[in-house]
Amino acid sequence: MDLYFFDLDRTLYAYNFRCRLPELARLSGASQYQIASSWWAGQYEIRAEAGEWPTADAYLDEFARITGGRRLSLKEWASARAPSMSRIDASVEALRRAAELGTVCLLSNNPAPLGEALPLLAPDVVEIVGDNILVSYMLGIRKPEPELFARALDRFGASASSTFFADDSAENIAGARSVGITGYHLEYINGVPQTDTLLPAVEAFAGRDQ
Fold it and tell me: Rounded to an integer, what distance in angstroms lies between the CA atom of residue 210 and that of residue 198?
């Protein structure tokens, strides 16, 4: 059976970090500058996405230590992220169609709190993919590294030739293609995702000659 990987941020859901930072500051008591300059500029988020803090509790403890703010709960962390996310209807419908054609799985670069809070942040996606959620912290490596895709395939015992991957990052698509996965690059024009060809691409992959 075919396997369909879909990215989350800017693929299934639009994402705007500028809507998130003020809420993190308000809830934690640290300034926006302190959060951005310490956690994000210090590469802590990237390290978290690669699995350095493999649970939400470990991540939230470290986030408070580095930013100097109040320690957030998972629910608070999710409430700060929620304003930065908005559903891309056509992408979610393509995911739903892919679930009718094969096995679907979320494949996202994100830290542990995202994996644990996904039912709060994107319940429609969870409804479709069920337990098939692979967030980079679970794999110990980030996209676009080819090894991430190899590990993701191993989780399903799937071959690259029977796998489709949708992502907004051309670099991530290149990583997937380097191991033989069929990649679909969701492009943006003037900040708008160009979703018109996503569902046809899913259908074409399902109907290909094998």
Answer: 21
